[in-house]
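Good day; I would like, with your permission, to put a structural problem before you. I would ask you to consider whether the tokens describe a fold that such a sequence might reasonably adopt. The full record is reproduced below for your convenience:
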Amino acid sequence: MTHAAHPFDALMNITARPQAVFVRGKGAYLWDDAGKRYLDFMQGWAVNCLGHSPPVIAEALAAQAKLLLTPSPAFYNGPGLKLAQALREKSCFDQVFFANSGAEANEGAIKLARKYGTKYKNGAFEIITFEGGFHGRTLATMSASGKKAFEPLFEPKVSGFRKARLNDLDSVKALISDNTVAVMLEPIQGEAGVWPATDEFMKALRALTKEHGLLLIVDEIQTGMGRTGKLFHYEHAGVEPDIMTLGKGIGGGVPLAALLATEHASCFEHGDQGGTFNGNPLMCAAGLAVLEEVSKPEFLKAAADAGLFLESELQKLSARHGLGEVRGRGLLLALDLKLPIGAAIVAEALADGVLINSPQPDALRFMPALNVTREEISLMIDCLDAILVRAGAARRVA
């Protein structure tokens, strides 16, 4: 397919996309090449934690680009060392490996766990993951995921992943064997429709993994970097995992991810792990700028407050239209529509200049910038309210 000014068919057709071509972004807004403005409550799937093209990231990139892009991962560089140290100081972890995407970070976590099993657990290699989980699109991370649509794809899959049920500790216990080395989960399953692990389940899971000498891996690609009102989601439950992965928000819009581990779990040897662009100074300079902003107590409080306001407004909207529950935490929330009308609502919102996401047919997902304002939240809610009234998608009850 081609467009007057854009050869769309030059790109592989791997997903359905609207014909809007975005050319500029600022804060909560995007503009397409026709000059239309869109209020963005997707922000690159929770990537742009400071909004579109924030000056702090643009300035950090420009300054670093004038100094050094990358010297090769065979050498140290200043921004990479500084960002690793800052992450260590702000978390329960001791060492960091940088990557370019969340899938790559998760792949690294899987490899690290298997290395740990080789060294310390008689070759144990199985990792218990969860139905509904999503960990990426490499062969190993697709195999680790519990996404039904992945099951028939790219067979044979990577073996060694057994699926438990979220918030069901007995289902985890039933899968533990001598071959088990770790348990890996998203604290909130975003792609499945924003289903949270309870704090109680996280605590019980940490106790269970310690009891059996297993590693606990938290995939915080989407929940990390302030998304749920704390810098890292595991803090809500008061637990300390062995391994954590970060992505999306850590770069604020540039390709950056990280694998963090405690000293106990950090067992890679020379040659086990690497990557040409991993930890390059340009991306790490952006990560430093993001972390400095997001980790400020006043920023995290404002993000948490915005999340509570969004949750409250969604609950009111749901009550007005006879919809379902609001799930999630902070600024990662979903609205249960009760009906498979998500795609239609997304399309109407796009036409009205608002970008939202439907991860499942009966749910809408909201992932705005962490510095989203109450006014912007209200504008989005007004748009959804008008769509629901106009389409008669659900019965008004108030």
About this structure: The chain has two domains: 8-53+297-396, 55-295. The chain has twelve helices and 17 strands.
